[in-house]
Amino acid sequence: MPKVLTAPGMKKCIGCYSCMLACARTTQGSLSPQKAALAIRTVGGLQSRLVADICRACPDAPCAQACRCGALVPRSGGGVKFNPALCLGCRDCVEACIVQVIKFDEVKNRPIVCIQCGTCTRYCPHGVLLMEERA
Amino acid sequence: MNGPKLRVLQIDLTERRVGVLPADGLEHYLGGIGLAAKLFAGLVDVQAAPLDAHQPVVLAGGALAAFFPMCTKGVAVFRSPLTGGWGESYAGMRLALALRLAGWDAIVITGRADRPVYLSIGPHGVRFKSAAALWGLDCEEAGRLLRQLEPGRGFRSCLRIGPAGEKGVAFASVNVDTYRHFGRLGLGAVLGAKNLKAIVIYGDRDYPVPQPKQYREIYDQIYRQAVRTDVMEKYHALGTSVNVSVLSELGALPTRNLQQSTFEAAERISGRAFAEGSLVRKVACAGCPVGCIHIGLRRRQFAPGYEYESVALSYDHELIYALGSLLGMSSPEKVYDLIEAVELYGLDAISAGVLLAWLTEAQQNGLLREEDLGCWLEFDRVEGYLKVLENLVEQPSELYALLAQGLARAVERLGGKEYALCLGGHEMAGYHTGPANLLGLAVGARHSHLDNAGYAIDQKASKNGWDSARMVHEIMAEEKWRNVLNCLCICLFAREVYTPAVVQKALAAVGIERTGEELMALGEEIFQLKNRLRSQLGYSSERLYFAPRYFATPALGRQIDPAQLQEMLELYRQQAGV
């Protein structure tokens, strides 16, 4: 069973952004954490708690359903596979994402989609993010 | 290779003009303190007062900012209203990342707005926005409104001053993203004099990974050291507050205005006591996996029955020293109440604590009466201290207006100099370890323990039997290398990780080739540059005054010998050429 990204330990998160930096450099070739397919953020400043906006690996991924050019296809076990060569940059996936975590790279004209690779979890110093089999 | 072209944003508050300042030829400095010092040198008016409208403020990030773990600081350079001289301060949290994403290596701010404004610096350029509704607000409330008003959530940095900066308190700080500060030397007053309440910086600039394999290797090496070895253990475990009980046991914790260097209540306000009794979480600067920022919860009953309020405050060694042991505070709750006040007003915690400690002794000595201050101060009692802090901001009398100019100026007029814990006009940090600490504070560029870690050199000297010459050598070498780290704005907590070899590799991975010799030469050059600037701004090592109190209270268990300190000062003068 493929594993999917979860964030069970957000109360332990220190907001270091190492996960976002790892995602951006590995999947997007960028040093900017804004290019990551996940976002760690506060809800009301640093005195508030930190939350994770992550791909929820929908079993029947609405983003893939919305994609009419075949760039996004459902992945076994949840989430999607992304083939940038087929992407037309229509943004239908961005609009279809129920939890609104798909960003769009204006320069490359394609979405920034979590492919459930787990890179982010390997750079999380406190085990906040995990790859887990879906129950 | 010298490195990429530097981009410097120039903002004139008087004319409300913005532009790009030519920075050709400054790539050599890599960014950070080197770049900021050079820009400042070209703009400062050595004849004009620190709060003169023309004086520049320079903010800068480093060449590795946001690209490598723990390269998380931004530097500010300005003319200090506290000392009248060189002002240099560092802050973390989101600042370095925000500067990077906004695409600026440095920002130069000159002039004075005709009414309160804040700056919104983003991908669109710079907006001058009215701060009419923010003026007078404390740092917390101003921050809350700015978060609401400005875009860029999660990646922006929000710098703001509190009432202390607005009212020109010479040791007013700048709050950076709630838990970090440009604390020392009065940047808050400089911004206040410019009618500049806040600066919000954000952006969306992208940077491609230059050489993926080389970059990944050195990134992973640094990350592993930070997370999986014990190199950074001190900082993410108990944090710097671990020092409180350690220094007290060693006889190096300034207590009750340095009447003692051991504190019988040290365990009650130790890092362990804070952590076990009130630590609720740790947070990190953007791009740092260490998470050294310790947040404690102060729970406080405000009315009979079950009426409680609570506030989350960050604490560390310097706060627990300045607002704790130095004031004889015997519980974390008391320390928290003072931390909260200095946070909200926007005051430098160390300078405020040292001033309060001196005032306490000055009253005990009969130098100041109860009616002078409007309250009676006693060590271990919070109420009077809270009243004095409020009055420092409000300045209801000539005395308070004088005290708001800092301890060094106050004792020139009032007396009590012999127990005023200042060096070079700057209030001392939380170590009383010996002659290297005193010399380091006296001759360091900003009279800070962070200039050259003289406190650590004392401890090494004690273990290894170093003589005066060796200690002076170590102080100079440390300050020069720190200049290099500060060009890159690497957190000094990570100095053990960023050895010269690691710095070289990290620079190479982003396309900047430097030999070890070139890095050392850079440190030397900045050392000389800062010394020249300091001299122009009025610093002279010949005018240094060492209060007798430093020699009366044992440091690491023994009296400091004034003759040895003088010998070290002479050696330093000869070698540094100041």
How does this structure look, described?
- The complex is a heterodimer of chains A (135) and B (578).
- Chain A is an alpha+beta fold and 135 residues long.
- Chain A contains 4 helices and 8 strands; from the N terminus they run E-H-E-E-H-E-E-H-E-E-H-E.
- Chain A has helices spanning 18-27, 62-66, 92-96, 119-122, and strands at residues 3-6, 39-42, 50-53, 72-74, 80-82, 103-105, 110-112, 130-133.
- In chain A, a hairpin with a 4-residue loop joins strand 6 (103-105) and strand 7 (110-112).
- Chain A is globular and about 40 Å long.
- In chain B, strands 2-1-6-3-4-5 form a 6-stranded mixed β-sheet, sandwiched between helices. Chain B has a 6-stranded mixed β-sheet with strand order 8-7-12-9-10-11.
- Chain B is globular and about 65 Å long.
- In chain B, strand 16 (422-423) and strand 17 form a beta hairpin.
- The two termini of chain B are 33 Å apart.
- The model of chain B has no long low-confidence stretch (mean pLDDT 96).
- Chain B has 578 residues and is an alpha+beta fold.
- Chain A binds chain B through residues 11, 14-18, 21, 25, 29-35, 39-42, 44-47, 50, 107, 123, 125-126, and chain B through 66-67, 69, 93, 97, 100-101, 143-144, 147, 153-155, 177-179, 204-209, 212, 215-216, 219, 223, 226-227, 281-291, 312.
